Amino acid sequence: MNQQALPLFEVFIRSRRGLDHRHVGSLHAVDSDQALEYARDVYLRRSEGVSIWVVRSSDITASQESDVAAFLDPMDDKPYRHATHYKLPEEVDNM
Amino acid sequence: MNRMMDTEPESALFNYCVALGDDSVVLGHRLSEWCRNGPFLEEDLALTNTSLDFIGRARMFYAYAAELENEGRTEDDIAYLRDCREYRNLLINELPNGDFAFTMARQFLIDVYDMGFFAGLAQSRDAMLAAIAGKAIKESSYHLRRSDDWVKRLGDGTEESRERIQNAFNQLWGYIPEMFRMSDDEQQLVDAGIAVDRCALKANWESTVHTTLKEATLDIPSENWAIGGGRDGMHTEHLGFLLAEMQFLQRAYPGQKW
Questions:
Q1: Structural domains of chain B ordered from first start
Q2: B123: buried, middle or exposed (CB in 10 Å: 19+, 13-18, 0-12)?
Q3: Which residues on B lie below 8 Å from A41 (Cβ)?
Q4: What is the nearest CA distance from A42 to chain B, expressed in angstroms?
Q5: Structural domains for chain A
Q6: Tens digits of per-residue pLDDT, B57-75?
Q7: CB 3.0 to 4.6 Å from B228: which of B3, B149, B178, B254, for a disulfide?
């Protein structure tokens, strides 16, 4: 089978209940059902998780390097968007 | 547990465990031959995982057999120091892998069989066999999910994939009757509530297999030939080569450990 023809899938695994799914890698498969099975064989051999998500890599829309100026830089000089920017009144103490 | 019987059934149980271990180790070894030869990386890993499940199963059966025998033999002695005629596996397990379609067709037939067999064995009055079966069922249901999937993909795939998997089933069909044929010893163990009546598994097995083959647009091969003898130590010419490779190290360097 020509692997180049198989679509790429990104694999996300939730390692324990209560935690979020985290990206662990990618693999090739014919479709999402098979991708799920291969994810089990490639990434869960040592009981690394309790839940698997797979998503076709081509379905992910990613920000581009060229977007950085517009997307991310403007946040740098807006410290008031962080909770730590504000002084709490003494009475509130630890929040 | 039902081990306080006279010697006769005791050795029947030993033989039963060895035969089940042989089924597993021989198929496990065949699957291991795919390691680094798989059609692509993901499938290579999946086949190797499956192989390890079968080898693990064999270890449990052999270890239990060694315990029953109580003569100081280990699971490794049973696996590595017996020759062809002492092996009791069903012949379907020892057939060479052929192409990927053949491996998957064989796997599918065995996975369906294992689901029925281990469901039965999980009810055994022998607690150890029941425990091994409980573990095996979980593994087999995953194996079956994969092999069932591949049978349908290849059968309902391209002209070439369909032809290859149809040929595989045609070549395998004569090895099926042996899977459902009981020996006298085995029947005794069934009567004692320990072993599985394999004859009784056939109807369910057939209906599951036929359903998948139909869905895969494949023809059910005709039952006009049958080969057996594995449980009596009568094997195809292929098992000797398999054992020669599998046992080489222990034969060349007896007792070698690593």
A1: 7-252 (1.20.1260.10)
A2: exposed
A3: 42, 45-46, 49
A4: 7
A5: 1-60 (3.10.20.520)
A6: 999 999 999 999 999 999 9
A7: B178
